Amino acid sequence: MTISQLDREVRGRLRGLTKDNAETVGRHLVMTGRLLDTDPELAYEHAQAAVRRAGRIDVVREAAGLAAYRLGNYAEALRELRTVRRLNGSSEHLPVMADAERGLGRPERALDLARSPEAETLDASGRTELALVVAGARLDLGQSEAALAVVDSIPARDVRSVELRHRVSGVRADVLDALGRTDEAAALRVVLGEPEDDIVVVDLEEDDDEVTVTDEQDVAGPADSEVASEASAEPGTVQGDGPPVEDEAPLADPESAGADKDGSADSPSSDDATSDEAPSDEGAR
Fold first, then answer.
1. Where does the pLDDT of residue 4 fall: very low under 50, low under 70, confident under 90, or very high at 90 and above?
2. How many domains does the chain have?
3. How far apart are alpha carbons 54 and 9 in whole angstroms?
4. For 72-79, what is the mean pLDDT?
5. Of the candidates 139, 173, 194, which is a domain's last residue?
């Protein structure tokens, strides 16, 4: 596992680091992406290890934000993704940020984000993702008819993947249930079908020795045991890259800041600390 496994654009973001530090950070980013769906807790640890080494790099903070979101740490996810937006000016993660607001029990803020000028910059998939979050926020507010209108207004041309098409249909089924149209919702779910991955057929007449179950998934642990050692560091401790930097302060461009040439660090800030309460168990997506 090397930095070469990263996308070329991501590798370019790490050029301001020393070669050794870039290699280590790159390995953590690779593992974060690899484990995000299968082991979000370990993915989060890898992302945090990368932040401690290169906290001023946008792709590092992006990985930390997405890992926190997947783990249900919505307040932290919001802080990290706001930092990413300040670093690179992109609003591509606006749907995730809006859904994190829902997860914190603040559907009105999710709707505010959906109405922001940044929402107009999203691509087709991003617009569809945001529409699904808006539909969920309307459901949270008890506005089921409005939620259905949002789902039905999604242009078919914007739903370009089978996975996204299934998700749109799934949200529509949830909205139909909320409207009391349970027969229509059930029929839609039949069309979607249920995954068969968990169905196991065992012939009880076979000898027990002939029936084996194997786990083909090999999930790697933190590279060079680094996550385990870094996770034991005290909060706020930065290993290898200088003092932590608050997110609220303007963040320098890692390419132009001389101190970042040997690797920089930033710790997640307390952005919006007065309103980011402990996350609820709700989440639209």
1. low
2. 2
3. 16
4. 98
5. 194
